[in-house]
Structures are given as structure tokens and as C-alpha cells.
Amino acid sequence: MDEGAIITNPEIEDYILSLYPRVHEVFYEMEKRAEGSDVKIVGPLVGRFFSQICLLRRPQSIFEMGSGFGYSALWFSLFLGDGGVVTCTDWLEENAEAARGYFTRAGQIRKLRFVCGDALEVLANSDRKFDMIFNDIDKENYPQVIELARESLNPGGMLITDNVLWGGRVLGGGGSESTEGVLEFNRLLFSDPEFFSTVVPLRDGVALSVRI
User: Fold this and answer.
1) Which of 60, 120, 111 lies closest to 90 in space, CA to CA?
2) What's the pLDDT score for residue 173?
3) 76: how many CB neighbours lie within 10 A of its CB?
4) pLDDT tens digits, 59-102
5) Residues 88/75, Cβ–Cβ less than 8 Å
6) 3-class secondary structure for the chain?
7) What is the largest CA-CA distance in the chain?
8) At what angle do helices 25-35 and 93-105 cross, to 10 degrees?
9) What is the pLDDT averaged over residues 178-206?
């Protein structure tokens, strides 16, 4: 399939969105910002799903690999455990400043830690373990995440990965470096005995992996 392939029925997605109550206005501002930028966000369907995962698990420490201006992190932050913190990563200080502004306006700033730099390097150099890791870095680097996540997660911790269906391009058998990265990541993830993983075909495919 090509880049514009439809993974889920857009009319069904619209119906689901029509059921959801409005959350905080900041999310709508962030969605508008994403429309006019190079930053890709997970969108409200996946965002709400992330909030529910946190409501169920109550993580105290989340590490985001590739945060942009903090859209997914804000959804995660809504139901963190007591004293919980989301550590965000991005190359651009302007995205860090934007995230701090959005978190402040949403009343969640105490839950945000933002580090500018390469997400793989920041996580590799971290001296702490995390309850949850969200992977949304450049797709060609996806295969590097698995071993690093295994070492950085607490037992029972969760690795969440976006774009594992990659617009349907996973059906084409490869081609671009990004597609090859997603394919190799999926192969490695589902053959790793230390993770129990499932793909949720929501939006562009979200993989949930629990460290056994």
C-alpha cells in the first residue's frame, strides 16, 4: 500500500470521536498547531487510549522517545500515579518551550520534564528505570529501541510504539529505510521472549508490549 493507505475506516473514527466528551481546550490548540507544522501527532483517538492505559496502570515514570511539542505526553500526564513525571525528548528547544506552555495551561506542568537531544542517547544515559516508554522516533531507528527499552523498563513495564502499520507500507515488503526499520522492529519485537506484545489497529497501528 502507498503512503495514503487507509488503515481504519475514517467514518468509524469520526463516529467514535463524536462520542467522546471534550477534554481540555489545549488539546484542540495543539491539534491545530500540528496541522501547520512538520510535527506529527497521534491524534485524539490514540491520545485518549493512552490516557486510559495510564488510568489502568497508574505509572509514575514515563519516558517519551520523540515528543514534538508534547501532545501525546499531555494525554499520558492526565492519569499518572502520585508524583508521576513524563520525561519528554526532542531536538528542538522551541518544541520544549511550547510543551511547557501547553502543560502549564492544562495544569500539568509539575508532571513534565523535557530534555533536548537524541532520544536514544538520553535514554541510554539515564540512570533510572521507567514504568512506561513511548516510542515515536524516526522509523529507521526503531530496531534500536527494543534492547534499550528492555534494559530501561521496570519488570512489568510497558513499551508503547506508534506507527507499526506505517500507512500500510508494511505489506509491501520493504523499500524505504523507514519502512525497513518498522518491519525489522516488528519482527524483533514479536520474536522477543521478554515482551508480550499486541498490535492495536488504531489510526496507524499501536503496539503494546509488556516486559515479562
Assistant:
1) 120
2) 73
3) 25
4) 999 999 999 999 999 999 999 988 999 999 999 999 999 999 99
5) no
6) CCCCCCCCCHHHHHHHHHHCCCCCHHHHHHHHHHHCCCCCCCHHHHHHHHHHHHHHHCCCEEEEECCCCCHHHHHHHCCCCCCCEEEEEECCHHHHHHHHHHHHHCCCHHHEEEEECCHHHHHHCCCCCEEEEEECCCHHHHHHHHHHHHHHEEEEEEEEEECCCHHHHHHHCCCCHHHHHHHHHHHHHHCCCCEEEEEECCCCCEEEEEEC
7) 45
8) 150
9) 97
The pTM score is 0.95
Please write the tens of the pLDDT for every residue from 111-170. Answer: 999 999 999 999 999 999 999 999 999 999 999 999 999 999 999 999 999 999 999 999
> What are the cell numbers at 41?
501527532
Pairing of strands 153-162, 130-135: parallel
Report the alpha-carbon distance of residue 155 to residue 159 in Å, rounded.
11
- Other CB atoms within a 10 A radius of the CB of residue 176 amount to 14
